[in-house]
Amino acid sequence: MASVQTKAILPEDWAVVVLGFVIIILFLAGMTVPVPAFSWSNMQELSEKVFTAQNLAKIGAQFVLVFVFSVAGAWLTNKPVKQAALVFPVVYLLTVVALVLAGNKGVKDLNLEAVIFSLSIGLLVGNVINLPQWFREALSTELFVKIGLVLLGTGVIFSDILKAGSLGLVQALVVVLSVWYFAFWLCKKLKVDDELTMMISSAVSICGVSAAIATAGAIKGDTKKLSYVISLVLITAIPMMIVMPYIARYYGFSQEVTGAWLGGSIDTTGAVVASGTLVGETALKISTIVKFSQNVLLGLAAFAISVYWTYASKGPDAKQEQKPTLGVIWERFPKFVIGFVGASLLFSFFLSPEKVGAVKDGLKSIQTLWFVLAFTSIGLETKFSDLFNSNSQKPMYAFLGAQLFNVIVTLIVAYFLFG
């Protein structure tokens, strides 16, 4: 007798909002999940800081939290709960390995983030070991990404926008808009597909990895394409982080101009901080302000991209010959954006700074963990041939061209505003 397919309790888009807010509410209610230490510089520190019984207990506590919510997500969306429960510990173990590798001081100095290690480990395991089909199907990549995005909203505080300063905000708006549209135009000229076009445009213009992830969620993009874009972001950030401060010093740029240039051009916050430190305290401060000004635009950008994508009838299931009604737009609209914005509003206007300060580190740690889990899953379900093939050259050229434009335009704007 054929099994009857039961309906999901909640669509995945709403399930991630519910799960994300349950996590937030638990933290606000006083639940504490200790943040594990992953930083180390030598083997002695690795054994004395990371692999201690106390720290392993913290890692275990985080496992319990994300395991429960992962299984709950499978149940809410009518995915096989047993398979999800069997697969998740494997994904978590590989993710912890990635976090440990990323915690090394030398790795941090190179600004290699945990997601690149989790993706690499997942790719290695997934391509070397012949994983059964049920294992791959039980991976909950989108669930992990979108829960992380809802939690990301807790870190976007509207009052901090004012602290960024008017000049930082002006530069962020000018750079984000001009670079996004140039990247979009260049991708179209090179005939890059629509999904990659949106991800590349957002990653180059806004804030790198987070923008790419948010855009992929907003357009329900292919996770393999997301992995490719994030690889480009992280790889190009390293030479930019090292070379740009020396260019600024060679040409005698002021610290204010240099900081604004670095903050507006380099796509990852860690690389911005590292490069600003190479220049000086003033450059570090300005670069951080400018980068934060761009980061706070992420919610608005995700919302705008979501509306554009749904209204333009993009995506594999869209019928291009019909303009969608408001009802269809709402149906296609990625609901995690509502969770992201709702979390941001909650933490901006309804909670005291003391309460926000008390929970932000724990929530940030869990948010990062969801993202790293997602990229481990992406690696496990991806073949090397899918990630890097002959079709990946044009997107790479588009990304590099847009990044060059970003560097030039940002320098001009930085000179105009801070020179």
Automatic annotation (TrEMBL):
| Topology versus the membrane | Multi-pass membrane protein
* Key word Hydrolase present: no
Give the transmembrane region(s).
14-38, 59-77, 83-102, 114-131, 143-162, 169-186, 198-219, 226-248, 260-280, 292-312, 332-351, 363-380, 396-418
Q: Which Pfam families match?
A: Cons_hypoth698
Q: Which GO CC annotations does the UniProt entry carry? A: plasma membrane
Where this protein primarily resides, as one coarse class? Answer: membrane
Family, as annotated = Belongs to the UPF0324 family.
Q: What is this protein called?
A: Conserved hypothetical integral membrane protein
